[in-house]
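Sequence in, structure out. First:
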Amino acid sequence: MQQTETYKLNKPEMSDLMSLAPLNENMDKVEGALTALTARTVTLENLRIMVGRYVGGGNNTGTLINLGARPVAVAAFGPIVYQSKVAMAVFDTDVMGEHVHEILTLTDEGFIVKEMMNNARQYSFIAFFGDWPTADIPKPAEE
């Protein structure tokens, strides 16, 4: 009996006695491969990135940028021609300074922008959705 080169599936030859065992082995291998592929596909489909633009509301109360779901991280960028500004929130943690929650807050619908990211100007953003792997890189030891 021969086997396929890549997946080592059984290939009965004409001279082999008819047996269901090699076919059952093939089905078990295919089942295992499809199960693993399905798990990877679901994981990858869950990881999404959205990019877009919004115009700030120009108010002090904040403007909801509705993305239809809660992101795990958002970075918003102010117009370059007007003192480029950046704000970022990851898992509700301040990333770009101690006052980020006053500027950008994640919500179940998207995110709320205030202050410098909510002027009546156009801003850009990138939002991440899903179960992204994360890593907390430790601070290097001081010499």
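Second:
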Amino acid sequence: MADAPARAAVPAAELDCTVTNRDVDLRLAVPAGRRVAIVGPNGAGKSTALALLAGHLRPDSGEVRIDGHVVSSPRAHLPAHRRRVVTLEQRPGLFPHLSSLDNVAYGPRARGVRRRDALARARTELDAVGCADLADRRPHQLSGGQAQRVALARALAVDPELVLLDEPLAALDVEVAPAIRRLLADRLTGRAVALVTHDPLDLWALADDVVVVLSGRAAQTGTVEQVLARPASDFGARLAGVSLVEGTIVDDDEVHTPAGDAVTGVRAEPADGWRSGGRAIATVDPRSVAIHAVGAPAGPGALAGNPGGPSGSPTGPASSPRNSWSARVVAVAPAGALTRVTAELRDGQRVDAEVTSRSAAELSLAPGSDVMLVVKAAQVALYPRP
């Protein structure tokens, strides 16, 4: 007798629903054992997604499923306190009148675990986050980092099916955040996690997959590497630290912007979807962009940046083609020795350049300055629009 076919893995959580008054129509999944970052601009629908998963919001249509079971729809709704879902937010939210030990034991006790067993589990979880010696302290006696560690112990003490992280590091000092990020990465490995964050460091440290949410819709989904290597939106490009330029394919290695500027680059593999007349995206690393002051005399002060790379020159050999785009500076943001310059192409698309602050001063770069952006073709990545 033939073996029965293997049962497809059931995601730990799924959203396929709408919330009309928030203009949200979301479809996303959190696979079992995977950590999924939900990213997007303010107001895009990230908090709505977490509220739907947690049980604080009910959809107008569609369903929310946890471990394959419908927990929320227009016809039925399992309240938050009956779901095996926990949320870790910017503020730890510990009960002020309870010790750290009792805070962590609260969840198991609320689920019917005997006090002795709940306290034993709480001690185990506190030890796992490095807070065993803080068991008797109340929240007001803890530092911000210590309180967040205790909050993580409390969250995991109930063996949740899903962990929700709502920017848990945003309220921490920059000196404390890296240690908490490492702790989260360690303690959440192998768990189903939905994470909302604005910090690219959180993506690399805490997430396996990314869902980019724009205007209440999932605009792009993939692994962290896939989404940051090939962003499909301006938001995704900013998250990846690159500029995104869109246009129409005219050749194997050339795209034209709506204003007619030619963008030459290196086409990413595979070649599927690359055809003349199709839409394409070019990504440009700000560090690879050089700025020429329009009308400036030739010389060291006429160029900011290094389009040829560490050993290149502004003109370079004929075998190393370069893009040259007319642009106007719209923003200049000094940051110590470097300055981030944002310039608009003729069609309004924006390209960032990272130059030395000395060069920016020598070129008198300021909003309204007309410039020429120069980028080596080998430093521009091309791929068809998803």
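Remark: Residues 242-386 form a domain with the OB fold (Dihydrolipoamide Acetyltransferase, E2P) fold (CATH 2.40.50.100).
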